[in-house]
Design a protein that fits this description.
mainly beta, Porin, 16-stranded antiparallel barrel, 10% helix
Length: 435
């Protein structure tokens, strides 16, 4: 009977607080077989940590069926909705061997369960080098080491969503790959301020169900961790690089050219294009400046990205499948930026949020070029900018309320449906609960 109850007892111990669990273990006779088994189980489970958060929210858009990047497009006949934006549970396991001073292994599994289904977000393992305490090796499904905003957790980020550029270029942020990191862990290291990551990844990320070509992306990031310039001012900065592309299994490549004053996409259909790599080259830089106040802080963040993106005729989003037939890659030069201003309002419980960003998917064309007679420049080349402003109330350390308004601007073009500003602003009211 006792053996049958052992799993139940173990589960109960696992979900108790560590102090309570230790108190219960003190009551077990570990000199007997059952007690030894329970102690072994407790020691293993004590290295596992659960965390997570849920984000129920209500949204109102400027029109029915509005398209956008504030949680996805609205349904055709709806301009408001309740939704569970994210509901994530993360499991961390860290192994600390007796022979070393630091951890030797970390494993992470995270999934997202909402009314739209269940999706895996992280599954990765990490080895720690403990002789010099300088390097780690990470492999599996995890966030690409590119951009500050991309790597800022959705549970910690002040605005409800990442910017349009982040969502288009690197949808869901994660990819399959391997990464080597340099980050000194000794307290007396002269390079404690520095972190460097370099990795090789499939490329399409979670926009594809599997890697559809043999070309890989090289991604790197060098970070100067926030440094105290004075007792009240700290500054951090980083540069990022993504150098990759997509294997061309068709001979058609489109680029922007100007003929007779009219800009358009022209095709290169040489058979020599087969097997070449359509470029995905991103370059980024970011900084974070924080000023401590009597209560809370003021913070300014800035990030700029530019490069080349190869995608389809109708979208600049990284393709989720290989092209076929007469379909070809459209190679566009892009740029974009993010600017944040955060201000505590007399208390760490109240925070003002202001964010401005833009994404220009094709810097070779201007608003009057899009939809111009004789050109084949469509809506996928329109520049968007967003001014977001809101208020966050940190109710407790485990709960917060966010009221946020996205004012979205699009270029006014000659293209039907885009001659004026679209009614696609979005107001979000979100509660977040975390543990």
């Amino acid at each position: 009977m006792l053996k049958k109850r052992l799993p139940l007892v173990a589960v109960s111990l696992f979900f108790c607080l560590s102090v309570q669990a230790q108190y219960l273990m003190d009551m077990v006779d570990t000199t007997k077989d059952m007690g030894k088994g329970m102690l072994s189980l407790f020691n293993r489970l004590d290295k596992i940590r659960f965390s997570g958060y849920i984000q129920p929210q209500f949204q109102v858009s400027g029109s029915k069926g509005a398209k956008g990047y504030s949680g996805g497009d609205f349904s055709t006949n709806s301009n408001n909705r309740f939704m569970l934006r994210r509901a994530r549970v993360r499991i961390d396991y860290v192994h600390f061997p007796k022979s070393t001073k630091g951890p030797s292994l970390q494993f992470v599994f995270q999934f997202d369960a909402t009314e739209r289904g269940v999706n895996v977000r992280d599954v990765w393992g990490r080895f720690f080098e403990n002789k010099f305490q300088l390097f780690t090796l990470t492999a599996g499904l995890f966030a690409r080491p590119f951009s500050y905003e991309l790597n800022l957790s959705s549970g910690d980020r002040e605005s409800p969503e990442r910017g349009r550029m982040s969502q288009i270029l690197m949808k869901t942020e994660r990819d399959m790959g391997v990464m080597l990191s340099f980050e000194p862990r000794k307290k007396d290291s002269k390079l404690k301020f520095l972190k460097a990551d370099i990795g090789i990844f499939n490329g399409p990320g979670l926009s594809a169900t599997a890697d559809y070509d043999s070309h890989k992306d090289l991604i790197g990031r060098i970070t100067i961790k926030p440094q105290n310039l004075s007792q009240k001012i700290s500054l951090g900065a980083a540069v990022s690089l993504l150098y990759g592309g997509l294997s061309q299994n068709t001979k058609y490549v489109y680029t922007t050219t100007a003929t007779g004053g009219v800009k358009s996409f022209t095709v290169d259909s040489s058979s020599l294009n087969l097997g070449k790599v359509a470029p995905r080259h991103y370059y980024g830089a970011d900084l974070q400046l924080k000023l401590k106040n009597k209560k809370g802080f003021s913070e300014f963040r800035a990030e700029y990205m530019m490069g080349k993106q190869s995608a389809s005729a109708t979208s600049s989003e990284t393709p989720g499948a290989a092209f076929a037939g007469t379909e070809g890659y459209y190679v566009r030069k892009f740029n974009g930026a993010y600017f944040w201003y955060l201000q505590h309002l007399g208390s760490t419980h109240h925070q003002l949020i202001i964010k401005y960003d833009w994404y220009d998917p094709n810097t070779d064309v201007q608003k009057t070029d899009i939809g111009k007679p004789g050109a084949n420049i469509n809506a996928a080349n329109i520049k968007y900018s967003t001014l977001g402003f809101g208020y966050a109330y940190y109710i407790t350390e485990n709960a917060k309320l966010v009221l946020y308004y996205d004012r979205v601007f699009n270029e006014k073009t000659q293209l039907a449906g885009f001659t004026g500003d679209l009614k696609d602003d979005v107001f979000t009211c979100r509660l977040q609960f975390r543990f």
